[in-house]
Amino acid sequence: MSTQTSATAKTNAVLTYEGKTLNLPIVVGTENEPAADIGKLRSATGLITLDPGYGNTGACQSAITFIDGEKGILRYRGYPIEELAEKSSFLEVAWLLMNGELPTRQELEGFRTNITRHTLLHEDFRRFFDALPKDAHPMPVLAATVGALATFYQGPETEKHLQDTVIRLLAKMPTIAACSYKHSIGQPFVYPQNRLDYCSNFLNMMFATPCEEYEVDPVVAHALDQLLILHADHEQNCSTSTVRLVGSSQANLFAAISAGIGALWGPLHGGANQQVIEMLEQIEREDGNADRFVARAKDKNDTTRLMGFGHRVYKNYDPRAKVLRETCDRLVNKLDVSSKLLDIARRLEEVALSDEYFISRKLYPNVDFYSGVIYKALGIPTNMFTVMFAMGRLPGWIAHFMEMRRDPDNRIGRPRQVYTGATLRPYLPIDKRG
Ligand code: CMC
After folding, report:
1. Which of 90, 235, 351, 397 could form a disulfide with 243 if both were Cys (CB 3.0 to 4.6 A apart)?
2. Partner residues linked to 23 by β-bridges
3. Which of these CATH numbers, 1.20.120, 2.20.28, 2.60.40, 3.30.420, describes 8-58?
4. Mutate to test the pocket of ligand 1, among 309, 322, 385, 393 (most ligand atoms within 8 A of CB)
C-alpha cells in the first residue's frame, strides 16, 4: 500500500545562460512547496548546480513526512507529531510510515505478533560479538551486526523477501542493541521475551541479569516508546539520504540500513544526543555556569558548539523538542531522579534564546537537546543514546527505502561535481620527481 502521488508542474521558471533559454517546470507538492525541476539543465545548457550540503536540493518526491521548518511543523503521513506522540504507539507509527495509513486493530495485532516472533538472533551471532572489542562504541557494533544479517538472510529480492527483511530488522534491532550493550559490560546476553511489548522487551534485555530479574517500570517503557515515535522519521536527513543513496544502487535493505546507522553516528546528526549530555555534565563538573558555556559557543575562535541547538531545516522551535521538554519535567518528578542536568539545560536554553547570536541565526533547541536528559533519567547508558535514536529511526529508513524501490522513475543516485584539481599533465618518472 502506498499513498505516493506525483507532484504536478503548473508553471515555469526561466533560466537564461549564454544566449540559451531553458524553461524549468515548477513542481508543487501537496503542501504548496515549489521546486524548479532541473532535470534537463545539463543537456540543454551544459550547466550543473553547485549546492554543498544540499541545502537547496530536492533529491526526490516523497509522501512520507512533511516539515515546515519556519513554522516548526512536523507530520508523518499528514498526522501531527504532537498527536502521534500523545496518542499512538511506536509500532503503530512504524506501520503508518511504511504503509501510508494507520493500521486497523487487526493489522496492528498481526504486525505485533509477527515482530514478536522474529526477535531472536541466530546463535552464531555470539561468536560474531566475541570477535569485537569490549570497549567498542555500540553504534559501529550495531552497524556491523545489521550488515552481517545480510549474510544470514540471503536471497533474491522478491516482495516476500523484502517484507521478511523489514520484519526481521524491526524485530531484531532491539535485541542487537541490547546485546551490544551487554557485550560492552561483559554480561551474558538476555533472550527476548514474547510476553513483553516492544520497549519493555528491550529494557528487559538491557537490564535483566541471570542473577536478578528486572521489573519493567511502565512509566519508563512508555517514555521510551514516545521517544522512538519522535525519532521515527525526519524526511531527507543525512542518514535517510544515505539509506536512499545506498538503496538506489539496488543494494539490499540490510546494507542500506547499516550505512544509515554509520551516518547517524556523527556528532552533527544523531550523535549529538550523547554530546549534549556530555556537555551538560562538563558544565556541572566545571562550575554549573551555563552563561560561560554559551559565551564559548558564540566565540568564533573556539570550536565549541551548543550541542542540541540549531537545525538545517528548523528555523523555529523543533516540535519534537517541545514535546520532550514537557516529558522531561514529568519524568524527573515521577522517577524521582536528580534534576541537576535538567536545570542546567533549562538555563542554557534560557540564556541562548535571549541572546542576539542565537536569535539572529534562528538557533533553537532540537530533538537532541532534551532527549539525552530523558535517556539518563530512564537509566540508559550515555553511549547507548545514539543507538536509541537508530532504533527509533529504523521505520523511517525502511519507509524511504521502500518508497524509492517502488518508484518506477528511481535512478541510481549519482551527484556531479565541479572539478578543481590539476589540469592535464604528463606522468613523471620517479627519479624526476621532487
Ligand atoms: N552552536 C553555536 N553556533 C551554531 C550552532 C550551535 N549549535 N549551530 C549553528 N551555529 C552557527 C554557525 O556557527 C553558523 O554561524 P555563522 O553564520 O556565523 O558562520 C550558523 O549558526 C549556521 O550554522 P551552520 O553550521 O551553517 O548550519 P547547518 O545547517 O550547516 O548545521 C547543524 C546544522 C545541526 C549541524 C548545526 O546547527 C549544529 O552543529 N548543531 C549542533 C549539533 C546538533 O545539535 N546536531 C543535531 C541536529 S538535530 C538531530 C538530527 O536530526 O540529526
Report:
1. 397
2. 14
3. 2.20.28
4. 309
